[in-house]
Write a structure and sequence with these properties.
Layout (H helix, E strand, L loop, with lengths): L1 E3 H7 L5 H9 L3 E3 L2 E2 L5 E3 L5 E3 L2 E2 L8 E6 L16 H4 L8 E2 L8 E7 L2 H7 L8 E8 L3 H8 L4 E2 L2 E2 L4 E7 L3 E8 L6 H8 L3 E10 L2 E2 L8 E3 L2 H13 L1
Amino acid sequence: MEERLQKIIAASGLMSRRAAEELLRAGKVRVNGEIAVLGQKADSVRDRISVNGKALAPTEEKVYIMLNKPRGYVTTLSDEKDRPTVSELVADIGLRLYPVGRLDMYSEGLLIMTNDGDFANRLMHPRGGVEKCYRTAVKGSDFTQAAERMRQSMLIDGYRTRGAEVEIERLDDHSAVLLITIREGRNRQVRKMCEQVGLKVTRLCRVSEGGVRLGDLKSGAWRELTRAEIARLKAEGENA
């Protein structure tokens, strides 16, 4: 697939996109032996690209997966406390994949992982905007009032959240299952929202992100995202 040269060079990790543009202007980049110009496109697999006289390694194939993260795993590639990590669950892929966002150790569900840094950064942008829905089992009382409070803006850790979408999926005397949809994804945000309205979270599972759903994927299993899912997430990231 052809892409602009500055993007290919930046994706290789050699330098930033802006630095690559400067080298292109200076005539320091060649494609198949010919001096390249700013705005030129190339195929990182098919074409021979050199920067400052040195061959650019072929860009690693981009991989996008969803993992159903089980409880008890941390969303890091390594852990100083030797706790199980999500990277162990996708080791059979044979590539270094990074989690897009986080789920705390005691949460579970949909976790997107990729080696596409631009894609991940757009989805994780601090301004938020990408919808994430959590099936949240809670204990407490007056769940209707608690849900209404979470639909309003809340002050958490000095940050004013947007109002969440909250649907009561199941209701008993002292427990309930809520579907809570947020657009920010601050650290442990759903747990802190529930705590603030007097609810104790007993189980938290992310069931969708950017319109991509976990479905019936088994706990601890992973699958590749479809082209339609990747396109949808990219569009969500650009519009966030």
